[in-house]
Amino acid sequence: MIEVKNLSKRYGPNVALNNISFSVEEGTVVGFLGPNGAGKSTTMNIITGYLSASSGSVTVGGYNTLDNPNEVKKLIGYMPEIPPLYPDMTVKEYLNFMYDLKKVTLPREKHLKEICALVKITDVYPRLINNLSKGYKQRVGFAQALLGNPPVLILDEPTVGLDPKQIIEIRNLIHNLGKKHTIILSSHILPEIQAVCERIIIVNKGNLVADGTPDSLSQNLSADHKLILRVEGNETEVKNALKAVKFVETVQSCGEKEPGVFEYEVEARDGRDVRRELFRAAASKNFPILSMTNAGLSLEDVFLRLTSAAYLQDTVSETITEGEEEE
Ligand SMILES: Nc1ncnc2c1ncn2[C@@H]1O[C@H](COP(=O)(O)OP(=O)(O)OP(=O)(O)O)[C@@H](O)[C@H]1O
């Protein structure tokens, strides 16, 4: 549905996006995650046709954003970080105005009523936007994006500045919309992405540093399929029993965690899954395994690891360049 190829964007000497490529299948909810200044808004603005790229291309539903900007805009409902509202209009006036501006052809009254019910703004429909709370303003912005029922929704930091209750409501809304729409959701808040997205793209300093499902990202980056086991029994004997299992590379003892129960870190060769064999080996020697978990990283660890490693690399190269310039 969305195809981003070798996209770069420079603002003067600053590189905001550095040759990023990704595609989004129809009907998926993709999280676009990155720290402040990573290039998320720039990417969203290029996909929606509000900004031109320095190089590279974007197609939405087969249409190129440069060659067919109007066709692309028809397919996309965009909610920028700051929703484009007119505070001196009532919600009713604003949505009718946007309906006309977008040349929506669906039956007006029915369509507006449905959208208002969906984003829960029916009760403020006659009120002036200026007098609404931040959460309601955000939802009016959402309603605007849904006008015309576009197949693609691009949401830039949709819950920023909302209270926890409003955040949950907006997340649920996105989750429900994800059943019928292709959604790109940009955020720097990890739990938000984790709550609603089936796939995550991580950007840092204009570079795409990871792309995958939450599980695959933490699996790929985890310390090579390490398992953490707690086993009751003599430490040396248990260690030897675990070590004897086929494909087990290392068994490291991590000390006594409960009386007579030691923790072990077990690493298997070639990413093999040795959990069943470990169970059988321990059971045959009558060493009860009290717990066995994957030492996979949490998504938060993955994010920090990816963004800080790239950050460090950049800082080092920048420092070297600066030093050379001074000489
Ligand atoms: N109009 C502009 N002129 C110059 N530099 C800009 C402009 N817009 C963005 N930038 C720079 O480009 C980089 C990427 O910005 P962008 O707003 O896309 O990041 P972001 O990931 O959306 O960050 P945030 O979460 O803070 O909104 C930043 O370094 C920013 O300072």
Automatic annotation (TrEMBL):
One of its GO terms (molecular function) is ATP binding. It holds the Pfam family ABC_tran. Keywords: ATP-binding, Nucleotide-binding, Transport. SUPFAM superfamilies: P-loop containing nucleoside triphosphate hydrolases. InterPro entries: AAA+_ATPase, ABC_transporter-like_ATP-bd, P-loop_NTPase. Belongs to the ABC transporter superfamily. This is ATP-binding cassette domain-containing protein. It comes from Caproiciproducens faecalis.
